[in-house]
Design brief:
single chain, 468 residues, alpha/beta, 15 strands, elongated
Length: 468
């Protein structure tokens, strides 16, 4: 498997250092609902993890919660509650959205506030090595001392300095120096430290959690491309200077999301939370949008595109439902050799696409080719065998499962609904046999009002639940 490494600016063959791949993903700062931009790295790196597991590669996956931050503090102060209350509220909301998007739970979901001792230890080490200094009750990283600073964003330190925001205060030695520890201010949470009461800076939190749960050197660090500088650049600097070892072998970043071809921002009024979009379309079309394009390419969100995602999912669900219906009416016998060969080729091409820098766009194209094949050769065709249909069903569920799709709707419906619908279908069949067309039409209309669509086929009556 090859992945594009932001650090080297090229695709590189990936093999884990040890028996399992170690991956750290930057998680949300929990002060509000996650927005659709947050959903992209969640879905993309969930697919990366699923695919590695599918290919037999164990994964230790860590995704943090930033639960102490200026935004959390400001929100808490505006509501007159504690920062802990705000953080816990939006962690709970995060789980609602993450579960809706079918995101697998990480191996560990650490919180910054649970790792204060680890953070303090790294800061002390940086001071001892001369890479950090105390200024008042704050501690800053001495950026100019790190000769490799800028290697992730591929910019000379002079260019980064010229573009840095210059503080009006003289508390820092250099404009690029960043806070490792912030002295306590009124109305803020604080912890004891060698430098007085205070709290950690944003960047140091991830370095501490990555080291504690994955070690000094990890296989993959991932996140959105907006984090390359300064967050990930600063993580590298403080981690490598403190630990004396490479921080991450691979840096994998996903592209931006635009809304109606414009950058998403609150000021433009085109800022949407996952919850808002899910209320209109459901969660699965959001996931489909995130994984249907190559992860490094920018993608556009619009109502029209979301409707296309709904339609594409409907095609996948319709194929699955058709195959389930065909399975009930198929005959016993061995699976068709030609079909098995084609299914093997679809699997191989799917894996080839995923091995090429997680190309989910091409992988999805293979899935739809397989769907067309199944619809043509197995659905509504007399004489197909159960073994052939089951083989196609297994392949469909296998490959869509790697992408984390086909999870929002049941195989057909729950047992009670199935029994209810099939009872009415039998009554309708009896009415038709007795030429009681009025009763047959009445039953069809009743089912239609209940959102059930009937289709008369040579193999019998097929039913499906109409989607919104």
């Amino acid at each position: 498997m090859k992945l594009y490494n932001t650090l080297t600016r090229e695709k590189q063959e990936f093999q884990p250092m040890g028996e399992e791949a170690t991956i750290y993903a930057c998680g949300p700062t929990v002060y509000n609902f996650i927005h659709i931009g947050n959903a992209r790295p969640l879905c993309v790196f969930d697919v990366l993890r699923r695919y590695m597991a599918y290919r037999g590669m164990p994964v230790r996956f860590v995704q943090n919660f930033t639960d102490v931050d200026d935004k959390i503090i400001n929100k808490a102060n505006s509501e007159g509650v504690s920062s802990t209350e705000i953080a816990e509220r939006y962690i709970a909301e995060y789980w609602t959205d993450a579960d809706g998007l079918n995101i697998q739970r990480a191996t560990v979901h650490p919180k910054a506030t649970e790792n204060i001792d680890e953070i303090i230890d790294i800061v002390k080490t940086l001071i001892d090595k001369g890479y950090a200094y105390q200024s008042g009750s704050d501690v800053y990283f001495r950026t100019l001392k790190d000769e490799h600073y800028g290697k992730l964003s591929h910019q000379p330190i002079e260019d980064l300095e010229s573009g840095a925001r210059i503080d009006v205060s003289d508390v820092k030695e250099d404009a690029l120096d960043f806070a490792l520890w912030k002295g306590a201010k009124p109305g803020e949470p604080a912890w004891e430290s060698p430098w007085g009461m205070g709290r950690p800076g944003w960047h140091i939190e991830c370095s501490a959690m990555a080291r504690r749960y994955l070690g000094k050197t990890i296989d993959i660090h991932c996140g959105g491309e907006d984090l390359v500088f300064p967050h990930h650049e600063n993580e590298i600097a403080q981690s490598e200077c403190a630990n004396g070892a490479p921080f991450a072998r691979f840096w994998v970043h996903n592209g931006f999301i635009n809304v109606d071809k414009r950058k998403m921002s609150k000021s433009l009024g085109n800022f949407f939370t996952v919850r808002e979009v899910a209320e209109k379309f459901g969660y699965e079309p959001i996931r489909y949008l995130m994984v249907s394009s190559h992860y490094r390419s920018p993608i556009n969100y619009s109502l029209e595109i979301m409707e296309q995602c709904v339609a594409a999912l409907d095609r996948l669900y319709t194929c699955r439902d058709n195959l389930n219906f065909a399975l009930k009416n198929a005959v016993d016998g061995s699976a068709d050799a030609g079909l098995l060969d084609r299914l093997g080729q679809y699997r191989s091409r799917f894996c080839a696409a995923m091995d090429d820098d997680l190309n989910t766009a091409d992988a999805m194209g293979v899935v739809f080719e397989m769907v067309r094949d199944a619809n043509t050769t197995l659905v509504g065709v007399d004489g197909v065998t159960k073994q052939s249909v089951q083989a196609a069903l297994d392949a469909l569920e296998e490959l869509t499962g790697v992408l984390g799709l086909l999870y929002e709707r049941g195989q057909e419906s729950d047992d009670d609904l199935t029994a209810h619908v099939e009872e009415l279908i039998e009554k309708r069949a009896k009415a038709r046999k007795e030429k009681n067309w009025a009763e047959a039409d009445r039953i069809r209309d009743q089912l239609k009002e209940e959102g059930i669509v009937l289709e008369d086929t040579p193999q019998g009556v097929k039913w499906s639940k109409k989607t919104v």
